[in-house]
Amino acid sequence: MRRWTTEEIDILKEEYGNRRIETLQMELNRSEQSILNKAVRLGITQKENGSWFTVTDFCEATGISRTTVQYWINECDFPAKKSKTIAKKYVRIYPDSFWIWAEENKHRIQWPEFPKYIFGKEPDWVDVARKAGKSKVGKRRPWTTWEISELKFLLNQEKYTYPEISEKLNRSQGALKRKIYDLNLPWPVYVNRTAVPPYTQEEIDKAIDLYKSGYPLAEVAKMIGRTEMGLRGKLERSGYRITGKKIIRE
């Protein structure tokens, strides 16, 4: 194992928390784990400015636009505190407060694009949110001519259900329903509901937790072995309302 030089340690102390971990890997020619372990041993967790960020620092570090952050501050209770010195006024963003806010506002951040360890150690839920954000199921994209033709073909067979067509076209059942309605196409074959076992409270709780973690409803349904439309209906009957990427108990 290659020993850390004084120069490398100085760079780590200066830049850890200010720059993307990938950038430090290239500059130091070290693995991600090596950098994290060394930072822990040195007691480095945040920037040297007192563990807070200005809006400019935050935007440069995360790649999130200043306009977006300002909107969060004005409309979404983003935890930015105004401060001032004799020379100037500025806004402080404290990492601990940011993580608390981010957990309640997961849907506002593109987690797969959010730099790792930019604020030092991350809460466990962040890794889950990153994985959830990488799911392709449920992401909106334009319908192609081939997909529409394939949809018509599958429906004309009069033997495929919503889940089966969803799997074949990699489309959510909600997207299928909207497209079928728009094109005035015949509906898919419905599952015999009497053959479907009732939902357990454990399933409902797991579905809610997964959805709040950032997984699309279609992916959540697959993970618990249910259909998307069936799960949506069950949640609504249980007093939950799904709006965008949030689920609210009414």
TrEMBL record:
Domain of life: Bacteria
UniProt protein name: Helix-turn-helix domain-containing protein
Lineage: Bacteria, Bacillati, Bacillota, Bacilli, Lactobacillales
